[in-house]
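User: I'm putting together notes for a lab meeting next week and I want to include a structural view of one of the chains we've been expressing. I don't have a solved structure, so I'd like a prediction I can at least talk through. The sequence is below, exactly as it appears in our construct file.
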Amino acid sequence: MRAKFICLLFLIVLFSATTHAQGTVPFFQYTGSGNSYTLFGQDPSAGKSTTVPTVLVPVKLAFESRKIDGKPFTMDATSDVASILHSPIYSDFPFAAAGKTQYADAILRTTFPAAKNWHTLLGKPEVKAVEITIPTGYGYILSSKKTGTHVAVVDLEFLQRELFKQIPKQDGKLVIAVTHNTTYYALGDATVCCSWGTHGVDPATGNSFVLSSYIHDAPAVVTDRDVQPLTQQLAEFIHDPLYDPFIESEGHDAKSQGNIFPRWLRPASMHPGDGGSCGGTSVASRYFLLEPTNTNLKNNFPSSKPFAISAGKMSYHLQNVALLPWYLGNGSNLGNTYSFPDPHALTAAAQPCPARRPRSEESAPFTPSVSAIPSKGSPNGHELIGYWEGYGRADFPPREISPQWDVVIVAFATPDHNAPEGTLQFHTPAGLEPAEFKADIASLKSQGRKVIISLGGGGQNFTLADPARVPNFVSSVTSIVSEYGFDGIDIDFESPSLSIAPGDADFRHPTTPSIVNLISALRQLHDHFGPGFMISLVPEGTQIPSGYPSYGGQFGSYLPIVYALHDILSFVDVQDYNTPPLQGLDGEIYQPGSVDYHAAMTELLLHGFPAGGDPNQVFPPLPANKVAVGFLTGDVMPATVSQAMDYIITGKAPAGTRYKLLQPKGYPGMIGAMFWTIDDDRRENYRFSNVVGPQLHRYAAAPQK
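Assistant: Thanks for the context. Below is the predicted structure for the 705-residue chain, given as structure tokens.
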């Protein structure tokens, strides 16, 4: 207790002897402010120079989802090796605070400036090239038609596993694996995108490693250059060499999961629209492993302002990263620099995340300070669609939903794990009695509004892979719809609930049991309730638009469902927020959050496209009156929604629009916009429904089909 008291009072810094875990490189312990952190290299107090052996692994990726003359399209990092060897990763460059040395050594010397004659260097590597096949469903290629350049999007965990099947244990060596123009998604879910790689200790081999990408001749949408992604992951490895990339729990405390820092806020200056959100408790953000200096948000390619450095004729772009003092707010026995190489990138220590509010406070009733705009005029075929969060709690009853919402989707009916498989259940939210809830539903319907129940939801793994589950599904859904008087159902089975099986290559004749059985079940429900029964689909971006560059696995998994049910389908509203960067029909790449993206992704459905790029597998266009655009209230501004809807429906492009509609006059029959959620819109004083609702209702009546 006395030692801990002294450490807390005087912030005395203690260093342990340098240690090696089996198969890993040297690391040491830094203790400050009562906490201990593992860092890469030798103990600074020894004042020695250490050279760590390395293995450089250029990776050639072969994509089964895209073939040229019958052979998989490849992205090969072999040609990048020479540039990497001449870069600051392996060669000496001048750094203002650390002298002429390598990038890793300069980070450590800037962090511990009092440690004289102390260096941690990477030795000249042994080069071991490997080739990894990326099966359909584990990644895809995006191309720029204008420049003929490419970028890959790949399942990170899959690639790491495949990599270390070919790279055995390398005791005491650092493995640096590099791909070419490749970004990654996490957790096997392409909506959890994008990062430049990962780092730490591979659990299968015990190898210390950095896995990242070299960027050269990439599409313009990728703004990072050359070794910038590699230096980002290398810096994070330096600050957390025992990180286990397969453990993704923010509340972890096991030592094998790496260093744990106080919860930090993203700097507002680096994150337009996202400043003030929590970055996590580890080096870089959870899942995406983004630095506090990265400026992009979820779903986009990582980006940040690079630090340009030159030595002789060689010039490179380095990642600005947060140093240990930034995370700890502790300058004792450390340097006073918060970021590297540019000390001006972060000029103050991290701000701590505020304590999470008790659940009781989050559920406290909210009274808007403005009024919901009344609905005026006759229905014109353009609708505002929203989800009401009916699971777990209710901030307000359905009868208080703004009159601007034409279609109310109650979320969610969820799997009943105490009943036979395939059974769904629905309980009225806390605070609402069933009779009251049913009366509210009836009241909304009497106003001419539609109320449907959504099945599934994010985080719910539900599948009808076994045909024996279908009767349970049909029976339970029939009971829910009948009891509460819903007008229909909404299908929100997200990844991995729906995944196209290997070998199932024709969306017109699917063979994947979970998809075939779901189609059958939905047909049975429609036949039971009759032609007025509504069925809507709310796929993630991976489940429809991603079916353009690649068809298989999670990519395009809703295409066979849409195709099979097109005659009884009410509408499809793709989630333009749960989606990675994708390619439009103009052959260019777009990132979520812009009018260009909303227009490009929506026109895939409105115009049709070759699934997986196969001209023999053309997914036909959906009628405009069956297509809506899905938005997230916390992910977009009302002005962007208004511009996107105006462009898609009328063809009037806002200034700066790059994507050109193939139908220049737009799609006047298109339904409108969907939002997650009605609740958030109300908590934000109707800032979406009071703007987008009247806009949709002012349009000329949609053409009748």
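A couple of points you could mention at the meeting. The chain has 15 helices and 37 strands. The two ends are 77 Å apart (CA to CA).

User: Perfect, that's what I needed.
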